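for the recovery benchmark. tokens below, seq after
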């Protein structure tokens, strides 16, 4: 099972890529863990790419968070323009994909604006993941919302299955239903408090991808925790 690590500093991304037992399969690069993740500075991606510039093999994919501010996921026209411009800049700098989520004022998937960003990424050969804005959608409407994401062109959705404080562990039942409903049309990436100590309890969801911040001190990735997660997903 593949492992994605959320990284909130350039050094964390470098650690996760080079961590013991092969490290992560993909990086989600974002800033400000305490804000729930927002768009990182462009210089962070450039720093990571520069660090690995002399590697003989390609580094793992780096997906960049597009979120202009913390708070809700209903954005003004100006904020949407910021997301569009950031996507273009990061794509030109070598990002492999993007993670974002736009909701309507009523809390539904904003199909029109999400599709515009997905198409903008697609013409540049970049994939898109809908982030945990999905968690706040009522459980009874999550399958419908999942189908909307497929229509928008998203390749994956990052979710804990629930908006509850327990994270993915508390959303196991919903996650299982989402994986079944996805039917291979979209990847369900399980995230939300995922650690080596509880990953085993999430296997029953049937999900293939798992997402963790694997944090140690501050906002830095814990290399040992990445190694533990790596060991578990390879069993």
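predicted aa per position
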């Amino acid at each position: 099972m593949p492992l994605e690590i959320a990284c909130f500093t350039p050094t964390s991304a470098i650690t996760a890529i080079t961590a013991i037992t092969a490290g992560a399969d993909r990086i989600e690069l974002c800033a400000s863990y305490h804000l729930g993740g927002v768009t990182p500075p462009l210089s962070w991606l450039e720093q990571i790419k520069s660090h690995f510039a002399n590697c003989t093999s390609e580094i793992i994919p780096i997906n960049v968070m597009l979120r202009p501010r913390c708070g809700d996921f209903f954005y003004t026209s100006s904020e949407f323009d910021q997301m569009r411009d950031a996507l273009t800049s990061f794509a030109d700098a070598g990002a492999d994909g993007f993670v974002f989520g736009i909701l309507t004022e009523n809390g539904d998937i904003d199909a029109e604006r999400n599709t515009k960003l997905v198409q903008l990424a697609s013409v540049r050969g970049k994939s898109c993941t809908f982030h945990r804005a999905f968690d706040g959608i009522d459980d009874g409407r999550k399958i419908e919302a999942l189908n909307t994401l497929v229509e928008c062109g998203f390749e994956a959705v990052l979710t804990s299955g629930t908006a509850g404080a327990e994270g993915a562990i508390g959303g196991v039942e919903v996650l299982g239903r989402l994986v079944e409903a996805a039917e291979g049309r979209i990847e369900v990436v399980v995230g939300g408090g995922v650690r080596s100590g509880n990953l085993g309890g999430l296997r029953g969801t049937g999900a293939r991808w798992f997402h963790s911040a694997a944090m140690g001190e501050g906002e830095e990735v814990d290399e040992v925790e990445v190694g533990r997660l790596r060991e578990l997903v390879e069993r």
